[in-house]
Design goal:
10 helices; 2 strands
């Protein structure tokens, strides 16, 4: 399951590296090693959106509010078209600069080449990537920011067996960043594998 591992590692980088400190491949591809759409933002835009998400988590000012708040059916629908939604929303406000335009062309060419070489097999593979990404989006945004009718940032309690197998399948970084999401939002520069150890201090500290 390469995609969840790529996504969560890019997420880790978002809190410690600017786009100027990232190599050109990751800077261009952004959230996925294979473009999820002909409209996908690059690292720089994702970086700015995610930091704004942390500043305004689950509020109406959150740029990710469209796949957190509101009717569950619409949230799920939005989760599966997040790459397009984020791109259109960003471009509507900020326009397209030269670098983003080049990155979009590169990602379009990658999709064309892969579709030409892989044919129907690539299309099924790409569809599977979109499903995995959409399901992950629902968990990482809606489920950790909306619980018991309230919006905020929460921990996720899951059975130990799911945590164990989830770590094996998706990687422990993915699981830890999800179930300790409240700790992550309080101290986003703490690496995901240290969130569990930091919980007792971060949650109980009067300065947090």
């Amino acid at each position: 399951m390469t995609l969840p591992r790529w996504v969560i590692n890019v997420h880790e980088l978002l809190h410690i590296k600017s786009s100027k400190e990232i190599n050109q491949i990751i800077r261009c591809l952004g959230i996925s090693p294979i473009p999820l759409s002909i409209f996908t933002l690059s690292y720089q835009q994702i970086h700015e959106i995610h930091l704004a998400h942390h500043r305004h988590s689950a509020t109406e000012s959150d740029p990710d509010a469209y796949h957190i708040r509101g009717n569950l059916f619409l949230v799920i629908l939005n989760a599966f078209i997040t790459p397009e939604q984020s791109s259109i929303r960003w471009i509507k406000v900020n326009g397209i600069n030269f670098q983003l335009g080049i990155d979009l062309l590169i990602k379009l060419l990658i999709l064309i080449v892969l579709a030409f070489l892989g044919g129907q097999r690539f299309l099924w593979f790409w569809l599977f990537l979109r499903i995995v990404y959409g399901l992950g989006d629902i968990v990482f945004f809606r489920l950790v920011h909306h619980q018991k009718g309230e919006y905020g940032t929460f921990a996720m309690k899951i059975p130990n067996i799911i945590e164990t197998w989830g770590g094996i399948i998706f990687g422990s970084t993915v699981i830890q960043a999800t179930i300790h999401h409240d700790v992550h939002h309080k101290h986003p520069r703490i690496a995901a594998h240290n969130l569990a150890k930091a919980r007792s201090y971060v949650i109980s500290s009067p300065n947090n």
